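Q: Could you predict the 3D structure of Aspartate-semialdehyde dehydrogenase?
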Amino acid sequence: MGDRPTLAVVGVTGAVGSVALQFLSQHADVWGEIRLLDAAPDDAGGELVVRGEVTPVLPLTGAAFDGVDVALFLVSDRLSAQWAPVAVERGAVVVDRSAVFRLDPDVPLVVPELNPEAVRARPRSIVASPGCATLSMIVAMGALDRAFGLRELVVSSYQAASAVDGPDGADQGGVFALREQLSLVAGTDLGTRPGDVRRAVGDATGPFPAPLALNVVPWTGPLQGQRDGWSAEELAIRAETRKVLGRPDLRIVATCVQVPVITAHSMSVHACFEQEVTVERAHEVLATSPGVVLFDNPGAGEFPTPADVVGTDPTWVGRVRRAPDDPRALELFICGDDLRKGGALNAVQIAEAVAAELS
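A: Sure. Here are the predicted structure tokens for Aspartate-semialdehyde dehydrogenase:
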């Protein structure tokens, strides 16, 4: 493999890890050795295919990072906090998609379509990737910010079950819980009387604070994460968007709602700008922005939905309207796959940017 950098992928057996291996096999091959690591004792010792080669899954140890140039972490906050500093001590640049380092002032938060230069300033040798909800909208909103100057964002996020781990930290616990709930309510007349869905679901709510089948839940993340009534996820969208755009004073509020969708987040966005904006000009900006697909013709039934964009990489934008009472405001509807751009893809893109710098 010549002098190409060595990559370690930590967390290869989870949902995001499996998608990351697809990207590493499909993208231009910039890596020498790719080392697969997993903390789960039952998974380490197995084999997975990457770049068409059967590759062993090694246990997560300090020695596993010896000779590694870039370590891509696709694991829980707890594991990233424990092992990312170990990888750095062993000489690796860490690219981390957990929430642990995102708001650290010494760790750049990078979206390659918007702030690729930030990857080079990493005093802790760690680069962070934003959360899946932020990534669902920020490529599109960053493009509009550059064109018109964002002044304020009001966001409602409709989030899929695939972004939610189980109560015990189990990967895809939200998906398993939703599927179980759907099996309990399918073929019934539930949803017609107060509390009938809750009684039918019983203890099968899983990681959700209320039944998700035949329902929406106006809360995401752990209930103990609230601050003044705001969920940790809502505050994260605010803080991460400000950091990526380099706009620390940007006015932004978010309301996060859990919806009975397996994979792909949706967002309704009210965006106010410094200058007047038209739908035609916004269409031009969005249609020519990398990582964005404009899909906006409601008269023909063309607008993004999570069921249609799941399994794709771009941010899909539709329902672009100028606010009826403000010529400097737009309304938009945005969808993005939380396991792809919202999970694996952005982190892989960052790792590839680091590899280009090291090569």
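Q: Anything worth pointing out?
A: The chain is about 30% helix and 20% strand.
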